[in-house]
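Field reference: sequence -> structure
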Amino acid sequence: MKLNKIIVLITTVLMTFVLAENKIDKQKSIVDTDIRKSSDEIIVISSTPSYGRDTADTLQYYPLDGGWNGQFIQSPGDAMITAFQMPADGTIKGVNVPVYAWGTGDQQLTISLHKISYPTRADGTTYPASAVDGDGWIGGYDMDANGWMSQTGTTYSPGGTVGICDDGAASVVASSQDPLGTVEAAAGPPGTPTMGLLWPDGFTAATMDPTNHPDYYVGDNTENWTSLADFGSEVDLLQGEWVGVMVSFSGTGDGTADEATGFFYEGGTGVVDPWVSLKFYNECGGTSGNGGWHIRAWMFNFQLAVVLTGDRGPVFGSISSLPTTVSQDARSISVAATDDNPSGGDAGVAAVTVSYQLDSLTATVNTVSLSLTDGDALDGTWTGALPGQVAGSMVYWSLTAIDVGGNASSTATASYFIFQATPGAPLLFDNATALYGNPLYAPYCYYGWGQNPFDYWSGDYGNINAELVGNYDIIFERSAGADTYGFDSDAALSPWYSQGGKTYVAEGDEWLGNRYGWSGDVALTGSDFAYALGVGTYHPDINGPSTAISKFVPNADDALGAVMADYLDSNVVTMLVDSSSADTSAWDTTYTYASSELYYDPVYDPGHSNWLDGITPHEGANVIYSGYTGPTDSLGNVAADAELIPVAVYCQAGFGSKGGLVAFDQMGLYARVFDDTGAVTYSHWVGAEDYYSDSPGAPVRGILDWAAGVVSIDDDQLQTPERFALKGNYPNPFNPTTNIMFTLNTQSEVTLSVYSILGQEIAQIQSGNMRPGFHSIQWNGLDQSGIQVASGVYFYQLNVAGQSKTGKMMLLK
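Structure field:
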């Protein structure tokens, strides 16, 4: 077992998902280039309960499992803020800025505390939740001719200003202002912004460097505390005031792509309100395309040590996880709540309630009172139940606790969905890290959801179970880069599969390792679920180190492998440019390349380690691909003693079910040609299911098509649909876009319109002649005037040759 696997299994602090820096354009629209790893988890405020005067506390944001992700990068000239609202009157004593990984060259950070104006706008209102990331540009000082901005200056250009880098049309934040505040301190140390400055108020700037402040890789260090008294005075603040921890990159780096310093971070989407972190980009690299301050949907792990002197509201501890569920029964909820009174008065939690709304944040608010079932009012556990709901319901919920003095505390609004199975659809079990940080990108790129509709079950919802899988005959699992549930998911799948007539295809580089470990070969028997998918013997880690590139060989004697073998031998590639056009000349584009070879490079894309596992299939199983043991050299060649071991198998089980295992991440497949200098003269991404029209490398889809018998291996073409049919929309609920899918059996005039729940036409998103086949049309949530519509339920009506079909969808924000 290797170190990176040990970390993933034991602490979850590190993730194996690392983003590649160079993505083709369609990927760049999804990738957050500030982030090298990603995750979204529930975040709460930590507290050290105390029941007397002067309570010591640490203000910080942290996930319930205790682990932070890294790294969120910062380059020279950039800055970051984490904002805290004082829970009571108190004194700030210290600040902690853990560094995940220092960059190279001149690395220096400057720390300061500010009495910030954020999250309030210039008109006195709070920034809306929609003002975030690409739409979260709130400006900066002294925009120059190149569109660059500064953290300080004389002229503040608010977000939405027509800029040099980008016109900001999609990123206007009305009434935005300098988040550092509106009052400038009389003076401050050199290099420290003075707007709203609270600390340092001495003569010396508070700086950090790699020598005196080691990063996480030096002894797992997460402690870089600075005493405020060492650089001036401690800071007194009142309950409700906002203070920002600002960290500026005041070094120069070394002028290369490796200059960035990274920090710990967590996702805050749906779990904090308002957003509590901002990043300043001095160049045109912000999420809006511009420089300046941007509100971000992430939490940066900066902390404040405080002594509280006034009364505050109750503090929440552990809270029940309420993920998406198939069950329509009532759901139990439990929360730990403590209360103190640093001012010395009465303390204790008087009441805890859970509020919930159905399907919309504008719906009626319902309230359920929780009961104290363990402990006492000072430190106890409160429990209750949320009523059951019908399939398809979205439940928004939050907790509120009130102490004996009338002080209240509330959690951010969370949500869960009552899963609704679609009759006849297959199921994708997405049991892996979100691809490029976006959970909906994997279904599109791995499995072509625009061409192949299916129900989607994220691993974030929890493990699959018998109640869920009983709705399906076809299930495919993505576990690339991780496999959270392992044998636990097999417990539900094995009896389901043994019924016969089922199809299951698993894909992932650690699918076997997370079940059987990484130490020595493992012979499987008929009692193993993996055996039913074709695995006779498991060979862990036939390739390494983690950054290796593997060479694959498709099995030309196998019907599925032959598709890739023929593709590699051909020097002509036809790529689909515009499948929505009825004019085929607009969408058939042909390129000519040299014959190529197949390589597996998950480090480049999608961005995780290449610890490749091998398989010896049992008798009766088929091999699609094999991989060479050991890495390739600079010319793409393998070692003379390298062995060729199967890495993708499929078979029909004795009880009639069909399935297979792809023991690698199919997104990392490339057709490549190396020249004699070691340079890649041609590299074509072939693992993506729906990225190009020619997707010969998608082995999961190949096995599914083999099992269903829907594709001819000879011509690899889908049959013309037998009838006009509306297939629904995916995802549903959605934000910000969804795809409405349908089939046509003849060339027809097609109109597709969206209506409000009151029957008003919102937008017409298709009108014209379309060819027969499968179609997917995207709606971006805009009305006919290009204005974003509100959250809620909408209907879409498809009209084809006098026939109409209607579907329902839900937009969530």
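Note: Residues 1-31, 36-53, 573-589, 710-719 have pLDDT under 50 and may be disordered.
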